[in-house]
Amino acid sequence: MFCNFRNLAVIAICLSLSACAATIKIDSQKDVNYSKTLKRIFVLNDVAADFDQDFNTPFETKMNDIANSCQVQLMFYHSSALSLQDNSLEEMKTFGADGVMIIKHEYGTKSATLTWEATYDARVVDADSKKVIWRAKTTFKRTGTLYQALNKQAEAFAIRITNKLKEDKVFVGCPLIADQAEGAAKP
Fold first, then answer.
1. Backbone phi, then psi, for 129, in 5-degree steps?
2. What average pLDDT score do residues 144-170 get?
3. Across the chain, what does the average pLDDT equal?
4. What is the signed CA dihedral for 10, 14, 16, 21, rounded to 10 degrees?
5. 37-83 per-position pLDDT tens digit
6. Distance between CA 67 and CA 92 in Å, rounded?
7. Would you say 62 and 155 are in contact if contact means Cβ atoms under 8 Å apart?
8. From 80, 130, 139, 142, which residue has the greatest number of CB atoms within 10 Å?
9. What is the rounded distance in angstroms from the CA atom of residue 63 to the CA atom of residue 73?
10. How far is the C-alpha of 45 from the C-alpha of 31, rounded, in Å?
């Protein structure tokens, strides 16, 4: 009897820990003829529109930390869909961006108060040529209970996106990071 209870307890713990893992899928493509190394990327981030700051802040912090380790500076910019003033161009010029990353919401699944799944079109544009040099379709699926480890899921999302940027040679000279979304290291 004690052995069965212990086995059930171990299974319950494993299931609760796995509920923290986010489901993240990313498909991407890079322009094979593009060889410039971007060092200053202005990021128009639409993730904040779907998830609150409990998600967006750790997402941007982790993404920024990883980019810095790759010798890339990021500047995040947010604009409300109803904003009457958009000074993103001025901000981008002041920052001296050589690239622009746009993370734009495409569609998702929401309950009355929470976004459970969101799909984004992410692209990197060369600031000089205005040419799209990298594009990805990424889906983030929130898992677990209402607010269970949301900051960790946000960090896993940032790791997965930056790992894809590294694999596709947009970020160069830095190693892939262990993938927290599934608890396994990527090669």
1. -85, -15
2. 81
3. 76
4. 170
5. 999 999 988 766 666 677 788 889 999 999 999 999 999 987 766 66
6. 17
7. yes
8. 142
9. 10
10. 22
Provide the terminal-to-terminal Cα distance of the chain, rounded to the nearest Å.
Answer: 43
Residue 109 above 70 pLDDT? no
Rg (CA), the chain: 18
State whether residue 93 is helix, strand or coil.
helix
Q: For residue 18, what pLDDT is reported? A: 40
Pairing status of strand 73-77 against strand 40-45: parallel
At which residue do the structure tokens 């899928």 appear?
A: 25
What SS3 state is found at 177?
coil
* Beta carbons of 123 and 26 less than 8 angstroms apart: no
Instruction: Give the mean pLDDT of 166-175.
Output: 92
Q: Which amino acid is at 130?
A: K
CA distance 48 to 57: 9
Which sign, positive or negative, has the C-alpha torsion 36, 130, 105, 26?
Answer: negative
Is 158's pLDDT higher than 50?
yes
Could you give the C-alpha distances from 92 to 2, 97, 133, 135, in angstroms and in order? 63, 6, 18, 20
